[in-house]
Design goal:
The chain is globular, with a radius of gyration of 30 Å. The relative contact order is 0.08. The strands form 7 sheets. A 7-stranded parallel sheet has the order 10-11-9-12-13-8-14, with helices on both faces. The two termini are 49 Å apart. Strand 18 (454-456) and strand 19 (461-463) form a beta hairpin. The protein is α/β, with parallel strands linked by helices and 727 residues long. It folds into 6 domains: 2-106, GIY-YIG endonuclease (3-Layer(aba) Sandwich), CATH 3.40.1440; 126-173, no CATH class; 200-374, Rossmann fold, CATH 3.40.50; 384-431 and 489-625, 3-Layer(aba) Sandwich (Rossmann fold), CATH 3.40.50.300; 435-482, no CATH class; 635-722, 2-Layer Sandwich (Alpha-Beta Plaits), CATH 3.30.70.600. Helix content is 31%, strand content 23%. The chain contains 20 helices and 29 strands. It binds adenosine-5'-diphosphate and zinc ion. Adenosine-5'-diphosphate binds at residues 196-199, 202, 223, 225-231, 380, 545, 547.
Length: 727
């Protein structure tokens, strides 16, 4: 027998299978999708069996495999297909696709050494009566009793006993040691929770999805914050499980959504497996095996959980579909939502994408009926959406209030006096390479692309990293003549300022620095929920789906910061972030208040937030996207040419452009090359090109060819990013 093996070689040049011979003694262990050890260039490597064949025709000398690694198949048929899909869609190597899909313990790599964990159990080797009759001491009888009871109750803890009497019993073969496979990850158990009676909108959404359980239909569940999307997901899944099928639920990041997970655990108990970044490699391996063995029906996890090897998949649900965490930012640059759609198609099942602020791409598709749109317009319990008030920081600055406006200060005081809580969002996602006037909020924008210009220190100029438009940096703000500044005010400083302003209040900070330790995120959420603190301040982390019933006020310190990020999606991102943050205010029985501080009170996006009108935002943003030829009207591909040699890099980038111009269709737009947004990193220079296309039959072939041309170039690296979230 011969097999084709995909080896653990990262190198794109080697992305092909190699044929090996299987010695007779190993033949019965061979199955496609298992790993084998093979000799390769005087080394030993691991690889996946992708094909078996009886004969081999060729001139190469064929070597024998060394051994078969797995007892069970690692890559089942579906995963094999998904790997091919990823390779073809994102132009990566097949081995890197599989490496991304699998937990570390199952990757083809000799370096991993993560094993199954076993526990030793004691069992009786004879009948209870016989065993007792052979005991020679009370201690021994006690042990036999204990084992008998533990076995009957399936209580394993009782068996962790060892003593000389145990040894005697073992020697006399009255009892035996048995190895049992155990799982390392023990998630906390949660009290069971009754399902809720759905309101009318929820019921309609649920019924509509249930009607299509055997179809590959795509749903967009567009529901305002607090409209009870999670309850809809759970009840739909309940019906899926009743049909003996399974479900994958994707969330942006497990640690940021403890409540979501708790809800699922409470409803479905230990039929749920969690795949998240906090798991050790061993724990992840165990969760994966539980899934393979069919011990769970629901998998909840972040991006990579889309590869969970659930059999009999019945539905895929993606919460917060607008989240950019679904796209992987390094190779393979896959988008879990694309993979989910592919998987749903393979299985002929529905997929549900939920959000309070859907991406323009998906909302646009729903207006063309490519997605079925389901709406939840009201909050559960008829709760009201909060009232958003915009405060002009330009005016406040004149009064000497640079950080907290009068209005926000007063509202904090009155909320706290009513024993309510406050959330303050410091949206800090500005780049230090964008320049903003701290006095009036002015920023430079590209007249062609409508994105913020990036500052280049070496030449003291400002550049558009899409099209290359360049101007010289001025020292003073052209609008108000105050010296121009880099953006830079952090949460730590805000915490100090708040403490000075309100010495009696208890302030809790949440950002990347205070949540580094394991569980620190949950601890902060927990403490705040228990009302041990008055104010929670932090970065976008705090805007995620938490339910704090006592929060009545949300303050947005600088609504502008994310508007100024040099990216065509910055408006969409800002709208989404601010609406999510606003949604934290007044979730139970109080009407919430949101104070939004800005230097740009005329900004249309912010006005949409003020009115909390997704529709208005959508119509406005769609017009801009259309005019400037951005998604959803055009698809994008981002190409980066990188090298340590500046001249070579710039020359190759021009060659890439020429190649694209010569091979792509005429209507396709090619921008650049221009210096990339992160131009020089670790002494590697990067030039960027952007392809905008609507339909180009030659695109994929051209990109594949281009990719091949650089595979063998040791000095210049080419990165292709299909449908990037950021460029
Ligand atoms: P969303 O995800 O849409 O923002 P959630 O799913 O967090 O909203 O729901 C908000 C709150 O409403 C949760 O505490 C949830 O348990 C509760 N809830 C959802 N549906 C119902 C219902 N039909 N009846 C009562 N409470 C509900
Ligand atoms: Zn431009």
């Amino acid at each position: 027998m011969y097999i084709d093996v995909l080896l653990e070689l990262k190198n794109k040049q080697m992305d092909q299978t190699y044929t090996y011979h299987v010695p007779k003694s190993l033949e019965k262990e061979i199955e496609v999708g298992k790993r084998v050890k093979v000799p390769f260039n005087k080394r030993e490597l691991e690889g996946f069996i992708l094909n078996c064949k009886k004969t081999y025709e060729g001139d190469f000398e064929i070597l024998d495999i060394k051994s078969v690694v797995d007892e069970e198949i690692v890559l089942n048929e579906e995963l094999l297909q998904i790997g091919e899909f990823i390779k073809n869609t994102y132009l990566c190597s097949l081995s890197s696709a599989y490496a991304t899909m699998l937990p570390k313990a199952l990757k083809a790599s000799l370096k991993t050494n993560i094993n199954k964990k076993y526990q030793t159990n004691l069992v009786l080797n004879l009948s209870y009566k016989e065993a007792l009759s052979l005991c020679t001491s009370d201690k021994q009888k006690e042990i036999v009793d204990l084992i008998e009871e533990a076995t009957r109750l399936e209580k394993r803890e009782a068996q962790a006993i060892s003593s000389s009497s145990v040894n005697t019993l073992l020697k006399k073969k009255i009892i035996l040691e048995e190895q049992e496979e155990v799982y390392r990850y023990q998630s906390v158990s949660v009290l069971e929770d009754e399902k809720k009676v759905l309101n009318e909108e929820q019921q309609l959404a649920k019924n509509r999805i249930l009607k299509s359980l055997d179809k590959n239909e795509q749903f967009l569940l567009y529901g305002v914050t607090g409209s009870g999307k999670t309850e809809v997901y759970m009840q739909v899944i309940e019906s899926v499980l009743k049909k003996k099928k399974t479900a994958i639920v994707l969330v942006p990041e497990i640690s940021l959504t403890p409540q979501f997970v708790t809800n699922f655990k409470a409803r479905f108990q230990d039929r749920v497996a969690l795949l998240h970044s906090g798991l050790s490699d061993g724990e992840r391996y165990d969760e994966w095996r539980k899934i393979t063995k069919g011990e769970v029906d629901i998998v909840i996890g972040a991006r990579s959980a889309i590869f969970a090897p659930l059999k009999n998949l019945g539905i895929i649900i993606i919460d917060e579909e607008h989240s950019e965490t679904y796209k992987q930012e390094n190779s393979p640059r896959y988008n879990a939502i694309d993979v989910a759609e592919y998987r749903a198609k393979l299985n002929h099942i529905p997929i549900v994408l939920g959000s309070a602020t859907p991406t323009l791409e998906r909302m646009a598709k729903s207006t063309k009926n490519l997605y079925t749109r389901l709406e939840l317009k009201t909050r559960v319990n008829k709760g009201m959406l909060p009232i958003v008030t915009m405060v002009d920081m330009g005016l406040e600055a004149k009064k000497g209030n640079f950080i907290l406006s009068e209005r926000l200060k007063t509202e904090i005081e009155s909320a706290v006096s009513r024993h309510e809580q406050v959330i303050l969002l410091l949206n800090r996602r500005g780049y230090s390479t964008t320049i903003t006037c701290s006095h009036c909020g002015f920023t430079y924008k590209c007249p062609n692309c409508d994105i913020t210009l990036t500052y280049h220190k070496t030449k003291n100029n400002l550049r558009c990293h899409y099209c290359g438009y360049t101007i010289l940096k001025k020292d003073k703000c052209p609008k108000c003549q105050v010296p121009l500044d880099f953006y830079g005010y952090g949460t730590e400083k805000l915490e100090d300022d708040i403490k000075k302003e309100f010495p009696d209040l208890k302030v809790l900070r949440m950002d990347a620095d205070t949540t580094r330790k394991k569980n620190s995120y949950e601890n902060i959420i927990d403490k705040f929920k228990k009302q041990e603190y008055d104010i929670l301040l932090g970065t976008q982390m705090i805007s995620k789906g938490h339910d704090f019933p006592k929060v009545s006020l949300v303050g947005i310190i600088n609504a502008d910061a994310s508007l100024n990020i040099p990216d065509f999606r910055s408006g969409e991102r800002t709208f989404s972030l601010l609406c999510q943050a606003a949604g934290r205010a007044g979730r139970k029985d109080t009407i919430g208040s949101v104070i939004m501080q800005t230097f740009n009170p005329e900004n249309f996006i912010l006005k949409c937030v003020e009115e909390q009108s997704y529709e208005k935002f959508y119509n406005y943003e769609m017009k801009i996207r259309k005019k400037l030829k951005y998604p959803p009207f055009y698809y994008l591909v981002s190409i980066k040419v990188a090298s340590r040699d500046y001249d070579l890099c710039s020359k190759e980038a021009v060659k890439v452009r020429d190649y694209l111009k010569n091979h792509l269709q005429e209507e396709t737009i090619i921008l650049g090359p221009t210096t990339a947004s992160v131009f020089k990193m670790n002494n590697v220079y990067r030039f960027g090109l952007i392809i905008k296309y609507r339909f180009d039959a030659k695109l994929m072939d051209t990109l594949k060819e281009l990719d091949k041309m650089f595979v063998f170039n040791p000095k210049v690296n080419l990165e292709i990013d299909m449908h990037p979230t950021k460029i």
